[in-house]
Write the structure tokens for this entry.
Amino acid sequence: MDYGNFVGFETIGNATLIAYDNKPILVTDPWLTGHAFFGSFGNSHEIPEAQRKSIFESPFVWLSHGHPDHIDALVLEKLHGKQILLPDHVGNRIRDELVEQGFRVQVLKNSEWVGLSERVRVLCLSDYFQDAVLLIDINGRLVININDAADRAWGGTLKKIVRKYDKSYLLKFFGTGVGDMANFFDEFGKRVVPPSVKKKPLGRQIQFYTQLYGATDTIPFSSFHTYQRTDSCWANEYRSTIDELYDGFTDTKYKLHKPFARVNCSNDDLENICPQQLERAPLDPIEFGDDWSQQLDSNDNKKISRYFHAIESLVDHISFINFVVGGKTTTIELSKKGFKRGITFETPRASLINAIENEVFDDLLIGNFTKTILHGDWDLPSLHPYFTPYVARYSDNGRAKSKKEVAAYFEIYKARAPLAFMLHRFERESERRIRKVVGANTAALQIPKKLYLFLKRA
């Protein structure tokens, strides 16, 4: 295709958007190598040569967050000289590491428009979970790139901006994979499937978010990977097909398009790119350095202990963490003040030590080859809210390890939108407490929750 007179955007790959103003201007989250999370993720569809060319010709590259299906280290090596755009995350880990590697980096100040060309400008909304939304104005049309983010006090600001546009496109993750850690087992070795990954009418979910944010059009996005390791392929059972994305989407006021689209922002024409779906044979974990029979040594145990003991807030929530590696159990004792709850992770040594040394523990979990058992008083089969936020979000990415640092971390995000932040935190804690009393999937929780969501959407 000749992009010489094209003003618009394309969606391709997992979470890649390419914005054009007669030439490629901006690319988001380019993941091209086909491996992420210690080889567990692979691309589900090819990225055609035309879009690959545009990716490398774009002068601006936006990276939403630190997961390897959004920041592809091998692709970044080929993007030196480009202007890297980043959300304004507390801790600035990504910024500091990229600057150290010689990249040109610009942090986008929260809620401020920045022009990239005559007809393309961007605005970023970041949140305390180290996720971010990018709004892209292309010739007076608004692209809402939510990718993997969930509303953590930015929803009100987003909706106010969307209302100013006659045409807006919502790009968001919609349930075509299990996403976060879901490889849970009970203490008898039986798999426990979290409610969050059980299939629901996805079209109904997409319709809700389209209405909630006030977009006129929705293009499924940030959802296109497959599990390719033999120890994570179990999760493919819970991936949804593209056809299932439309199940329950009934509101004719809004338009739900197929993924992988080319949108002309001069006349609003939309066409599908139709990339080839990739067929992947399961790969042995050994191809990614993981030998499940390999055990930890004494130096490994010291590294793991130092890593978790540095995260002070864990002591308030977690009593112990077991690591079963090569059939041998290592216990990290965090608190002796009465048993609260514990975790057992069964995982291969190489990925575990890589995650510890590079402070990317979330990568180990999202890969969904690590087997996890929860002990004690957990709200759901989930590592939230007692483990993952403190380890992966605030500590690894936000660089907030001590309780004092975590408190300061939240004060910065709170200062950006005080009322919205406090309301959001109240909503989350209220739901958690009610769920703990009445259960996760009971009418006592679901009826008032649906009423609240209806009022919020209205």
